[in-house]
Fold each of these.
Amino acid sequence: MTRIVSFSVLSVVFLDAVIGGFVDSAADIASAYDFIVVGGGTAGNVVANRLSEDPLIQVLVIEAGGSNERLNGIEMPFLLAPAFDTTYSWNFTTVPQPGLGGRSLPFARGFVLGGSSSINGMIYSRGSAEDYDATAQLTGDEGWAWDNLQPYIRKASLNERWAEPVDNHPTSGQFNPTVHGLAGITSVSLPPLAKALDRQVTQTTEESPEFQFNLDTNSGNQLGIGWLQSTITSEGRRDSSATSYLGPSFISRPNLHILLNSQVTRLLPASDESDDDTSIFDLTDTPGTAGPKHVVTAKKEIILSAGSIGTPHILLHSGIGDRDELSNLGISPTHHLPGVGKNLTEQPAVNNVWLVDSTSNDPDVSGLPAGFFTHIGFLRIPDNASIFETVEDPAPGPNTARIEFNSVVVDPISSVGSLSITTNVLTPISRGSVTLNSSDPLDDPLIDLGLLEHEFESFTMREAVRAAQRFLDSPAWDDYIIGPSEALASVDFKNDSQLNAYVRKNAAPALHPVSTAAMSPYNVSWGVTDPDLKVKGVQGVRVVDASVLPLIPSGHTQAPVYIIAERASDLIKLAWNITV
Ligand SMILES: Cc1cc2nc3c(=O)[nH]c(=O)nc-3n(C[C@H](O)[C@H](O)[C@H](O)COP(=O)(O)OP(=O)(O)OC[C@H]3O[C@@H](n4cnc5c(N)ncnc54)[C@H](O)[C@@H]3O)c2cc1C
Ligand SMILES: *[C@@H]1O[C@H](CO)[C@@H](O)[C@H](O)[C@H]1NC(C)=O
Ligand SMILES: *[C@@H]1O[C@H](CO)[C@@H](O)[C@H](O)[C@H]1NC(C)=O
Ligand SMILES: *[C@@H]1O[C@H](CO)[C@@H](O)[C@H](O)[C@H]1NC(C)=O
Ligand SMILES: *[C@@H]1O[C@H](CO)[C@@H](O)[C@H](O)[C@H]1NC(C)=O
Ligand SMILES: *[C@@H]1O[C@H](CO)[C@@H](O)[C@H](O)[C@H]1NC(C)=O
Ligand SMILES: *[C@@H]1O[C@H](CO)[C@@H](O)[C@H](O)[C@H]1NC(C)=O
């Protein structure tokens, strides 16, 4: 790779000509900043916080969505509501998924300050140590290995702050304090009302060797069933990157600027930087656009943190991607990088529902709150499963799960309530993509998740659903579970084709897409960024968000995103000799 293209200028469209909360008007935007962070989401706000620790460094965050303020006051158990409020979502729809019988599915991404951390399920799950070690091996950078990331994972004053659960119940025996940070920025806590289904789950782990109790599934050794940890404060409120990393003591920094309701359309080559770079263009004559256009310059670096959909979308509209595919759309290629938007990896999930007796005399289960997660399980399918005769195991090692259980009591109010165990296939083999539908940057991209396309995923999902039934077959549940819900009741669990049909009909995305701007070793032609997260063959642009993860973590993605964003911030500071 010889050609180096340098980008330092961003083209921004104010979506509704309203310039949000923090930077008050277009006139307040300087023509240049040291760093411009594109996307005030989970990762972007970490980077903005860390870089602005040096008061001499000017940082601008540009976020397409609006303020998260209205989400802040929402308390348990309604914390999940934002996930269903389209006002805070990009409202994407996938292309038809062959593995799901041709269904197209809604695909939420945060469209608000805090990004997906403002609307997600708040599950805090790091994956296994082997996930990180595999990434280090794949990229050739030992800095991404589990042991070497420890300072970023848990050291005091870094990303994780352990919080007492809202009802202050004793938490001993529910997590391992030695694997957590105590004085970080984002709160992590155990569920309140800890008695909910406690007896049933604990008894199941005692009765069944298949479902061993794990004191802390975030220790690097994730296998087993443990108490769920969530990004919730001691006051029972969501802790997103907007409430934590942009909390009051940070947002008041005079060198940290946040611009809301403004969508970055493309990166412009540095040579296009005009003297008149504060000028505002009217773009209303361009189809699909709204509001004035603005161009702003990064003196040091542009940090793309627009997420696994947004980041490749911006790169492609900037002409960075597969040369031929861009030319076919009428976009002039500026840098041939065929990996952009490719290799999208997403976990399929099925919400399996059983009917429960809510009038049970058991005091533990009567009056359980709705929509409440209490435990999480990370399980393998047997190593001698027939699928491995023909398919190479995608799990990175023997201590990594292949399937996940997370459960939620959906409706305990009526006399027949329901309990669901959501089963995820954690390490799918199928790959999807983010591609462009048109040359208009305000058009949605085409999102193909490749869900359940490979036989490995249908095999593993069948085993996951069977494992969930075995879990509830434990005597611990006898007085509570009535039987499978309608969707499951007609399925013969021994019959693969019937389970396949059930899975195809009911699977949905876990909302954990990664790898669309994946890291790869230095000096290889595949992948999108180098291990230091700089876009290959391009100067002045780094990617810091879920899209750089070359392998999907065997868990959820929020914690890994916080972790990589912390290390990325240090890499950037090191590169620019920022020592504060
Ligand atoms: C509904 C939902 C539930 C989830 N539940 C969980 C969970 O319980 N646990 C878990 O670990 N993970 C969960 N996830 C996944 C997790 O939240 C994400 O993987 C993670 O937050 C992604 O972080 P990110 O920084 O890569 O992107 P995001 O946090 O999505 O940030 C990207 C930001 O960039 C902005 N942006 C995009 N394009 C542009 C542009 N052109 N110009 C300006 N701004 C732009 C977006 O508006 C957004 O604010 C969930 C995700 C969703 C959507
Ligand atoms: C999603 O839909 C809602 C409701 O229609 C809308 O308010 C919001 O702006 C949409 N989000 C995007 C990114 O278009
Ligand atoms: C996808 O990733 C694999 C490595 O995991 C790599 O070999 C391949 O080239 C990538 N595909 C593209 C189109 O970049
Ligand atoms: C896998 O091994 C277990 C225990 O040794 C055995 O009971 C089971 O039949 C084996 N399964 C297959 C598919 O070989
Ligand atoms: C892609 O473009 C076509 C033609 O304009 C349009 O019908 C379709 O809805 C677009 N797809 C998406 C996902 O926006
Ligand atoms: C599995 O179910 C399908 C569809 O109901 C049926 O046609 C098939 O005979 C069943 N297979 C076995 C082995 O029972
Ligand atoms: C990549 O290749 C260039 C040119 O061949 C070389 O100078 C550089 O040291 C290589 N980088 C790494 C990290 O191997």
Amino acid sequence: MDIIHNFLNLVAPPFAFVTLFLLLPPFHFFKFFLSTFWSILSENVTGKVVIVTGASSGIGEHVAYEYAKRGACLVLAATRENRLQEVGGRARALGAPDVRVVPANVSKLEDCKRIVDEAANHFGRVDHLVNNAGIQSASTLEEATDITNFRPDVNFWGSVYTTRFAIPHLRNSHGKIIGMASSAAWLPMPRMSIYNASKAALISFYDTLRIELGSDIGGITVVTPGFIESEMTQGKFLKNEGKIEVDQDMSDAQVSIIPVGRAEACAKAIVKSACRGERYLTEPSWLRVTYLWKVFCPEVIEWCFRLFYLARPGESETLSKKILDISGARGFLYPTTIQTTDVKAD
Ligand SMILES: NC(=O)c1ccc[n+]([C@@H]2O[C@H](COP(=O)([O-])OP(=O)(O)OC[C@H]3O[C@@H](n4cnc5c(N)ncnc54)[C@H](OP(=O)(O)O)[C@@H]3O)[C@@H](O)[C@H]2O)c1
Ligand SMILES: *[C@@H]1O[C@H](CO)[C@@H](O)[C@H](O)[C@H]1NC(C)=O
Ligand SMILES: *[C@@H]1O[C@H](CO)[C@@H](O)[C@H](O)[C@H]1NC(C)=O
Ligand SMILES: CC(=O)N[C@H]1CO[C@H](CO)[C@@H](O)[C@@H]1O
């Protein structure tokens, strides 16, 4: 056996290099051609049924409005029912013919089943499933006092459960799945190791599912946002003790001078991309270049993050927060002024 591996060790790299070199230009030309073709044939979602989890705030809320403007029927899920009712009302006003609100905690299997059943029983079909519900943890591994609180129940299992229940319906309607991962899946942001890992796991999950389901369903769009304005970037984190809290200082330290995108713009890009059947979407799109840095010189990214995001021994503030305070950049990097008061989970 060893001799086969030795042979492959020798032959595989030059083979990969030469074939990639020869194949990449025609492959990308073909892909460009296809994407232009699909953009003309973008899906019309009028009257179709869309499930959005985590629709009570942030990106999910705006994704719901975007589908509503296109005339889709909605099933909205999250834990805060009052917020969902408000979002539902606004979605109806924007053009959604029918909206169902399902209070549900996606870390529970039976709740995920209830979300999909509601869509199937009331509308008789599911066309798009947007797995958006998520919480962000902000703690270094050492600072986490009870590590079991950080299990990726919402981010990872929530998406897996709803997907599992929705697949039979998506097969019938040749429907689509839209998964929310994060650019943190490839950027090793400090204090986000578990969040990062749950998002990287999601990308891996959807990539495999894409092969398993093939053309039986309409497609899977994996979204990897950077910092987008929402309760998350306004400081809603799962903190050291395992409680969800609003922490403006933590948010300043994590987001710092990285420009924050508008949730409306992000939602618009997500729905457009899903209707066109694209495989991946990074929003804002300039973040894609960071992937190249990560692949070709990971040491540079690691060094910058360490310098920027972790406080030096004996200091309490991180460099990222100092720069934000000194430069006064908050005013023009955040789309709106931050109001932590109305963010508190109710
Ligand atoms: N904002 C960013 O910069 C950014 C960057 C990368 C990725 N993302 C991803 O984008 C997605 C949306 O986040 P966001 O930025 O819009 O944050 P957000 O404003 O905090 O929204 C998160 C949504 O998830 C819901 N949710 C949380 N826990 C839940 C649970 N156990 N069961 C059901 N719903 C739950 C929340 O509603 P309730 O509190 O009512 O349950 C809320 O509607 C997340 O998956 C996040 O990881 C965001
Ligand atoms: C989408 O379909 C609906 C009917 O199903 C139709 O009324 C509408 O004009 C279509 N919209 C576009 C942009 O083709
Ligand atoms: C969701 O359910 C989990 C597990 O039962 C629980 O720990 C968590 O507090 C619940 N979240 C909300 C927002 O109710
Ligand atoms: C800090 C951390 O866990 N970083 C990881 C984030 O995810 C990527 C995988 O996509 C890993 O390579 C990083 O090490």
